[in-house]
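User: Last request for today: this protein with NA7, please.
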Amino acid sequence: MKTKIQHFDAIVIGAGFSGLYMLHRLREDGLSVRVFEAGKGVGGTWFWNRYPGARCDSESVYYNYTFSEELYKEWTWTSRYPEQPEILRYLNFVADKFDLRSDIQFNIRVQSAHYDEKNNRWTINLDDHTNVTAKYFITGVGCLSAANVPNFKGIESFKGEWYHTGHWPRNKVVDFKGKRVGIIGTGSSGVQAIPVIAEQAGHLTVFQRTPQYSAPARNHLYDPEYIRKTKANFKEIKKQMRESTGGQPVVPPTQSALEVNPIERNKIYEDNWKNGGLGLFGAFTDLTIDERANKTVAEFIRTKISEIVHDSEVAKKLMPYYYYGTKRPIIDTNYYETYNRENVSLVDVKNDSIESITPNGLKTINNEYELDVIVFATGYDGMTGPLMKIDIKGKDGISLKEKWDGGAQTRTYLGIANAGFPNMFMITGPESPSVLSNMPVSIEQHVEWIADCIQFLRTKEIDVIEANVDAENEWSQHCREVAEATLFIKTDSWYTGANIKGKPRGFQIYLGGVGAYRKKCDEIATNGYEGFVLTSNAVH
Ligand code: NA7
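Assistant: Here's the final one, the structure of the complex with NA7:
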C-alpha cells in the first residue's frame, strides 16, 4: 500500500544547535516544520562526539543560545569548558523547554532533496523509503559531521576494536583498562582524548602526522558569583558577542606583536598561557597575517613544549613548524605532560607513514605495533562534506556536488544560499564565518536571518527566492581574497580541504569576522534581499 506523502512548509535536516533553533523560530512564525535527524536524540555534533575527554573550547557561558533571556537564566553551567555530556544535557533541556521533539523525526537519514521547479517544492527522500515535500529546504547538518576514516589497507582484517571519535558508541563504555591502544591523529579530538585514554590504557601509542600547537585550557568549576554576574550582564554579553570578530565577548587586540619589545611581548604570552584558553590566538592584531609576528607566538609555544616534555627526542617530535593558528589552535588538559608517562609513546607517521592495519595492529613502513584498540581521531571532511553526502539537486536536475565541482569550485551566496537552488538555505554553510567563530552565535545569526527572510517572502507573497549568480561569484571571490590576505591558506589543514585525499584545495570559511558579516547580511535584507532574485506566482 502506498503511504500518503506529507507536505510541510519547511524541512530542516539535523537536530543540533542549528536545527533546534530553526524549528523553534519557524514554528513560532506559524509554519509547519519537520526536522529529520539521523541520531537517536537531539544534539548533532554533541550527540555523536562522545569520545573520552570531549569538551568544547568556547567557554560555557558563551557557548549557548542567547535568543531567550529566560533560557539563558534558567540554565547554569558547571565549569569553564563544558564537557560533551553537559552540552548534550543542555540541548535536551532546550528541546524540552520549547517542546521541540514532537516535530523531530529521529533515527532517519535524508538521502536526497530534489527541487521540483514546476511546483516550486522540494521533495525529500528518506531512508525509510518515504518522501515528504516542503516549500523551504534548510540544512543544519553541521560543519564537521562527515567523519574521515582514512582508507587504510587491511582495516577490515583488524581483530581488535576500532572507533572514530566522531562516532563514539552510545550505549557502551569503551574499556581501555590494561589494553594496548593506538590513536591516530592529534587534532582537537586526539589532543583531548590522549590524556584521558593514557590514564586507563595499559599502553597508549600516539600516531602523529603533524604536531600541534596547544595551550592549557585551565578548566575549573565556576564560582557561583561569576555565574550570577554573567547572567546579570546577559544583554551586554549578547551584544558584544554579536558585534565581535570571533563571537566571543573579548576585547579585541590593538597592538601588533612586533610593536612591543620582546620582554613585554613574552609577558603577554605568559599571562595568556597562565590564564588558559584561546587567549594566545587573539593576543595581537597580526598573528594570523604577518609571518614575523606569527613566529613570536610559535616560538613561545615551542619553548613551552621543550620545558614540559622531559625526553628531548619526544619533545622534538612534538614541535610544530608551520604558522601558529593556521591549523585550528587547540586547548588541552595535560596534553604535552602526558608524553612524560611511562605508558605513552609517540610515533611520527610523517616520516614513517602508516602502511596498513593488520589483524593484530598497525604497520608503518619501518615498524609494527600490536594493538587491541585503535582510535581514529582523524577528523572530518569539513564544510562541504556533510552537504555533499546528501543528493541535493536544484534547478534542471543539477546537483550541489556538480555545481561545486566536487568541492573545487565551492560558490555560495553568504554561505546561506546557492544560485540554482531556490528556497534552499544552509545554516553555517561554506563561506560563512561558521567554525572560525563561536558556533552558537553564528548559528543564531543564520537562523534569525533565514526566518526573517521567509517571513518577508510570505508577507510579500513571493514564491521563490534564489541567489543571483553574479552576487554569488562576488561573495565567493570576496571570501577568497580575505583568506588570501592571511597565513591560513599557507598551511595544509581541514580548513583548506588538504586533509581529504583528492579534495581540491580552497578556503571555505569567511574570515571577515562575525560582526562585519552580520552587518553585511542585515544590509542585504534591508535592501530587499539584494543579490537574490525574487519571483511571485511561480507555481504553474
Ligand atoms: P582534525 O583537526 O582534522 O585532526 C585530525 C588528525 O588526524 C590530524 O592530526 C591529522 O593529521 C590526522 N590524520 C588524518 N588522516 C590521517 C592519516 N591518514 N594518517 C595519519 N594521520 C591522519 O580533526 P579533529 O576531530 O581533531 O578536530 C576537528 C575540529 O573539531 C577541530 O578543528 C575543532 O574545530 C573541533 P594532519 O594534521 O592532517 O597531518
